[in-house]
Amino acid sequence: MKLARWLALPSLGWFLFFILAPMMLIFAISLAHRGVYGQIEWGFSLGNYTSLISPVILKIFFKTICFAGGTALACVSLGVLAAWGMAAAPKVYRDLLLALIVVPFLTNGLIRILGLKTFVSVDGPLDMILSWLHIPHDPFSLSTNIYLVGVGMVTSYLPFAVLPLYGAFEKFDFSLVEAAQDLGARNRTVLFRIVLPVLWKPLVGAAFLVFIPCLGEYLIPDLLGGAKALLLGNLITEKFLKARDWPVGSALAIGLIFCLLVSWVILSYLERKRHEEER
Amino acid sequence: MALLEIVDIDKAVEGQIILNKINLSVNEGEFFSLLGSSGCGKTTLLRLIAGLDKPSSGEIRLDNKRIDNLPPQHRPTKMVFQKYALFPHMTAIDNVAFGLRLRKLPEAQVREKSMNALDMFGLKNFAGRKPETLSGGQQQRVAVARALVNEPRVLLLDEPLSALDQKMREHMQTELRALQKRLGLTFIYVTHDQEEAMILSDRIGVMNSGRLEQVATPRDLYDDPKTFFVASFVGQMTKLSGQLDGAQGEYFRVALPNGEKIQARKKSELKAGGAIAFVRPEKILVLPSSSPAPADQNVLSGQISQIHFRGDQTELEIDCGLKQKVSAYMMSSDDNFKNGQNVKICFCPTETWLFDEGAT
């Protein structure tokens, strides 16, 4: 048993060297200045952070949170239905349904998004179908728009919600549903007063699994949204790679982490309060 | 008067027959048990009554009104589930109040009724506790209180005591029976435990492979089983296989493989050839081989091969040169026998039941 304690050491070491150390470096850069040629001039200033409090950046922050939140909500809503359906399906079909969810997940994310982009592109299949049906549309705005970013995000992150929810539904005691029905509950009551409250924790877990990577997503908005769908991930990428302003880019990244920490603290507080009330 | 009537109920799932032409009447105020081994269809029948499953054909009537087409929400039955199915995120009182709140009763009335229901089971002080913090027995009581508070016409109980330890189970059996008598409510109770069914029930329906084999009072079931299955399933039996060797009215002579002959009473249609005689072990009298046997009794000679002391009772296993050893029970205080001792076993032909060998 004593030996078992040391088993976590390699991953802990990995975490310290390759995650925590770069993070500390990013934090240090966020307090530095950008030199005239884009180089980092070390120092201690909160100027990069105060520069974030501008209407343009706050709007992007807000838009990013809304996008990530909306994607999380959509993925969890669809995920609940999918996971419930899979868990209630006869055992022989469950593996097949699971494969239908997992197999696209195993393909490269970029390929999936490019596939979607090709589908909606000018002269692409969707454009052709709409033209054939004589439905008036603008092929250029059809191929890059903000809704498409939402579709792409949900498509990419849905398995993140379905898989943990499927695990939760598989362990869920369905006799609770029957007991509620037996006591007079209709389907809506069963869903909102029994199933969702009992599965509260996995639901929040699944929502966060989608929400967190969505906050930093830059590939999907870039490929499907064009210039109109500038999210925080795109802004950070722009600051690091195009503007060569690493200090402001780092401040943005730290700001994002701060947002996540704040939402995590709020959630933990709410959960603790719920527990205390229940007691 | 029949409160619940089940008429020609069939249930098949993916071509497999789960219930086969079930006909049953349950009277008002009766404690009725469905007894059978796992997979015999007893829980399915209970679920059909509750509306949690649909029959393939047939009718279920309650108070002379057809209910098999109603969803569970609209049936005047309530169910206590095997693992209680208490809502884990709700306190005991909220669990009990769940059905009442759905009926939109005033909150004060809901709380009063729920508290009274919990009080009836001595759980008033546990009203604010979550199910996970309650013992198995307390959870079971909350589950019964939750069902009863809705004043059902029939309470359906699906092996509610199976998760409890022996002592708690015995205690809850007494409590359930007393409760049922006090309320005068109709209980339909599913169990695989025949002793439990015997203790609790006014009548028992024995099920086997989707069929209802026999419906009778516990005593009739024990003393007068109508089918081979019921005879083998209910209580302990010593089985003696042999060949039919003449008849006298309803009594048949059976030649056993050791050359001895016994008389037995016919219980099912017999075809010429093999038959199996059943005798309850407690009906077998064991005597030292030198003692004279009582008149008009079946008598077999044998040797004691095993003695199992069970506290108040002792079981003797006697080798009579047959395929199976003969099992006999006696009061431990009367047991003066030793292993290997030659004995005589005597049993009355009226209490020896004969079934056709093909009935197995």
Q: Please tell me how large the radius of gyration of chain A is.
A: 23 Å
Strand line-up across the major sheet of chain A = 1-2
Overall pLDDT score of chain B? 92
Number of domains of chain B: 2
Shape of chain B: elongated
Amino-to-carboxy terminus distance of chain A? 35 Å
Question: Care to count the β-strands of chain A?
Answer: 2
The second-level CATH architecture of chain A is Orthogonal Bundle
Q: How many strands, what sense, and barrel or not for the largest sheet of chain B?
A: 6 strands, mixed
Strand content of chain A: under 5%
Number of domains of chain A: 1
Helix content of chain A: over 70%
CATH architecture of the largest domain in chain B: 3-Layer(aba) Sandwich
Describe it.
Chain A is built from 14 helices and two strands, in the order αββααααααααααααα. Chain A is mostly helical and 279 residues long. Chain A is 77% helix and 1% strand. In chain A, helix 1 packs across helix 14 (246-278), helix 5 (109-120) packs parallel to helix 12 and helix 9 packs across helix 10 (187-198). The model of chain A has no long low-confidence stretch (mean pLDDT 89). Chain A is globular, with a radius of gyration of 23 Å. Chain A has a two-stranded antiparallel sheet. Chain A has one domain: MetI-like fold (Orthogonal Bundle), CATH 1.10.3720. With 360 residues, chain B is α+β, with helices and mostly antiparallel strands. Chain B folds into two domains: 2-232, P-loop containing nucleotide triphosphate hydrolases (Rossmann fold, 3-Layer(aba) Sandwich); 236-359, OB fold (Dihydrolipoamide Acetyltransferase, E2P) (Beta Barrel), CATH 2.40.50.100. In chain B, 23% of the residues lie in helices and 37% in strands. Chain B has eight helices and 20 strands. Chain B has helices spanning 42-50, 92-102, 107-120, 136-148, 166-183, 194-200, 218-223, 228-233; strands at residues 2-13, 16-27, 31-35, 57-62, 65-66, 77-80, 154-158, 186-191, 203-208, 211-216, 238-248, 251-255, 261-266, 274-279, 285-288, 298-310, 313-319, 326-331, 342-347, 353-356. In chain B, strands 6-7-8-3-9-10 form a six-stranded mixed sheet, with helices on both faces. A five-stranded mixed β-barrel of chain B has the order 11-12-13-20-14. Chain B has a five-stranded antiparallel sheet with strand order 15-19-16-17-18, with no helix packed on it. The model of chain B has no long low-confidence stretch (mean pLDDT 92). At the A-B interface, helix 9 and helix 10 of A face strand 6 and helix 2 of B.
